[in-house]
Amino acid sequence: MGELAVPERILKWQLEVPQGQIVEESQTAGPRSPILMKSVERVSKLPVVEETVKIAMNVYGKLKGANCIFNWSLKKVEYTAAKAAESTAPLVLRLQRQIEIVDGLLCIGLDYVEWNIPAVKLPPSQMYENAKQCVSKCAQRCGNCSNAVMDCTASKLQKLRRICGGSEPTKKSEPEHIPEPEASSSAGPSQPSAS
Q1: CA–CA–CA angle 48, 51, 54 (5° rounding)
Q2: pLDDT, tens digit, for every residue of 45-54?
Q3: Residues 87 and 148 in one domain
C-alpha cells in the first residue's frame, strides 16, 4: 500500500536516461536506482494488474481522505516505506547481479504463462465473459448428460419390470393375472407329516 501512495519518490528513485542508463545519485536529488526489473514492469502492464492497481489506489485514496487519523497513519507508513527503500539501496546494489538473474528467470516464466495462457492479456471484462460462457457450456453439457442418464435408467427399469412380470407404468393395460397357489395338498409335492 505504501508504494501506491509515494509514486513521486519511487519515480525519482528509478529515473532513466534515453539510452537506458540509470541516472547517478549525483545527478538527482535522491539515491540512484539500483535496478529496474523488466518482469515487474511487464506484470504491471497486464490488464488485470492495471485494473487492480487502479481500484486499490482509488480505495486507498478514499480511505486516506475519510478520516484525519487514517490520513496521519498512512502518511507515517508512506514515510517509513520511503526511508526503508532508501536504506536498502546499497544492499540492492551489492546484489544487482543476482537480482538481474532472478529478473531474467521471472521474464522467462512470464513468457511461458503468456504463451500458454493468452487470456492473461485480455481485459478483465473479456475474461469474465469468456469464463461465463465456459461455465454455461459446461452446465448445459452436465444437464444433457444427466438427462441421458435418467432416460437410460428409466428404459432399463421398464425392461426390468417386463422381465419380472410387472406392467409398464406408461401403458394403460390391465395388470397381468398371477395365479395364487392352491390350498389343497394334491397340487404340488407332498409334505412329510410330522409324527
Answers
A1: 150
A2: 999 899 999 9
A3: no
Please state the three-class secondary structure of 92-105 as a single string.
Answer: HHHCHHHHHHHHHH
189 by DSSP, 3-state: which?
Answer: coil
Q: What are the pLDDT digits (tens) for 47-84?
A: 989 999 999 999 999 999 998 998 999 999 999 999 99
Q: Is 194 among the domain residues?
A: no
Q: What residues form DSSP beta bridges with 185?
A: none
In the prediction, which pLDDT does 149 show? 77
Q: Is residue 14 part of a domain?
A: yes
Q: Does 188 reside within a domain?
A: no
Q: Among 44, 38, 37, which residue's Cα sits nearest to residue 96?
A: 37
Q: Is residue 193 part of a domain?
A: no
- State the residue range of the domain holding 158: 124-163
How many domains does the chain divide into? 2
Choose among 86, 68, 66, 67: nearest CA to 2: 86
pTM: 0.49
Specify whether 113 is located in the same domain as 128. no
Helices then strands (H, E): number in the chain? Answer: 7, 0
C-alpha cell at 101: 538473474
